[in-house]
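Hello Y.,

Per our agreement to keep a running log of every chain we model this quarter, I'm adding this entry. I've kept the format consistent with earlier entries: sequence first, then predicted structure.
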Amino acid sequence: MSASQPATSENRAPGAARRSVWTALVPIVVCAGLAVLPAPEGLTPNAWRYFALFVGVILGLILEPVPTPIIAVLGVTLGAALNLVAKTPSDSVKWALSGFSNQVVWLILAAYMFGLGYEKTGLGRRLALSLVKVLGRTTLGLGYAVALSDVVLGPFMPSNTARSGGTIYPIIRNIPEVFGSRPGESARKIGSYIMWTGLATTAVTSSLFMTANAPNVLGLDLVRKATQISVTWREWFFGFLPIGAVLLAAVPLLVYVVYPPEIKISTDAQSWAATELARLGAITKRELTMAGLAVVALVLWIFGGSYLEATTVAFGVVVIMVLTGVITWDDLIGYKQAWSMLLWFGTLVSLADGLKIVGFLDWFATHTAGALHDLPITWVIIGFVAIYYIVHYAFASLTAHATALMPVFLAAALTVKGLPMKQLSLMLCYTSGLSAALTPYASGPSAIFYGSGYLPTRAFWWLGLIFGLIFLAVFLGIGMPYLGWYLG
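Predicted structure for the entry above:
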């Protein structure tokens, strides 16, 4: 093939085929290899085989030999067909479909529809151009603007999916296109940077404010029931403030260094944005309607939690969006990206929940926590927190993580003499927010930002690992000694 000859699909086929074969074989071989090993003591053969299946699915999601929704559906189908989680075919199907009863799954879908409304009305482009007009000279400046938006809303919105996915994401997803950055080859221009900054910031703000993440309150309730320890909003905030301040100041810059955007400075961006805004003219009726509905949703998410759940609010707004012509029914049912994400995330919720049902998570938590008993107190705390945090790789819900493992870890910790329970309890609870960016399925926001198309699967896993380790190192390095002093 000469240098000037274009590469054809035929020319690329052998390499692509070889890659497809090994990326498909690795999950299968690992899954089969684990499954044939004897089950560890205390774990049933079915639970061990299910764990092998789960590992195979996760490897498939990372290597992506076929589209990720198909991998997730294949995994849950095999689990149901082999009755690994339930004893009867009927109960197995109920388990397989149980993820679609999770409210976060549907809130994610609604958040995508919000984004569609911003796009169809042009409001998203108008808001994006306005941000670029004010802060668009540097990409780093835009990164800090995204972070600040999450900090401002954090104390008032207990659903980080509603805050980050339903409020911030629909606006900032329009910024990359202003710079000619779209999913695919041009994603790294600026889109990848903006999206990961938005997600990483959400992870930090979700831990900074007790009321920024529903599992925070749940975790504290579990702590109170297990240990009789109560924590106030003020104690929570000041307990995390040094860690949160460091991370919030560092995240946009860290992303800038670790996963740098191609566009760093654009001297003409602000004047160009001003010209484009002038061309858009006066705000339209449809834009005003979308803006009004977004404000209504925001107000109800902040103040209406006692009366309406966040997902109910979101669906009500989506219905009104259709009735008022902000989007059409065809727009809604034709949004393939949103429905693909619903299928993918819903099945992953079922798969992750299966680990709890078969008893694997309780077995793992009990054995690993028990192994820490004979260590010095400092290392016991580090071990408990690190394991609790890292195990979130096995969960597709922050709430499910706290519900499943917090009581087990607290029960094990109470048997260790001299362990400062309030410090440990707070540290375990703080990890709920920080773990939100570990994987594409770690939380509602992670699924939404992953679904943007600006963060390729392998890049997302690597970024989740890198920032997950950074967050954990800062949390333990600053948070543990500080909390020991603060609570002492």
